[in-house]
Amino acid sequence: MSSALDVLSDIPVSLALRMNCRGTTLDEMARLEPGGTIALDRLAGEPLDLYVGDLLLGSAEVVIIEDRLNIRITNLFLETPEAMEARAA
């Protein structure tokens, strides 16, 4: 039996990693320059938030594999299609 999610499986979505969302002023933005820093609320090594659109999907950490940045999923806040099907059975 085909899952209802199979119909949606080919729809493209955009993943976004968010390190921090913080307010700023136009004055602060006008003072930005190369080499400058912006303080964030996250500690070094803390997981980043993984979003699909405005939906918080989980958390992830940045890893380097063969000189390329990748993300490793550390937590998912949504059930996978397999878990939903198993629960429904």
Q: SSE order, as H and E? A: EHEEEH
From the 3D structure, determine the CATH topology: Surface presentation of antigens (SPOA)
Biggest sheet descriptor: 4 strands, antiparallel
CATH class: Mainly Beta
CATH superfamily: SpoA-like
Average per-residue pLDDT, rounded, comes to 84
Distance between the termini: 12 Å
Could you walk me through the main structural features you see in this protein, from its secondary elements to its overall organization?
It is a single chain. This protein has 89 residues and is of the alpha+beta class. It has one domain: Surface presentation of antigens (SPOA). The chain is built from two helices and four strands. It has helices spanning 26-30, 81-88; strands at 15-18, 48-52, 55-65, 68-76. It has a four-stranded antiparallel sheet with strand order 1-2-3-4, with no helix packed on it. Strand 2 (48-52) and strand 3 form a beta hairpin. The radius of gyration is 18 Å and the shape is elongated. The protein starts with 14 loop residues before the first strand and ends with a helix. The model has no long low-confidence stretch (mean pLDDT 84).
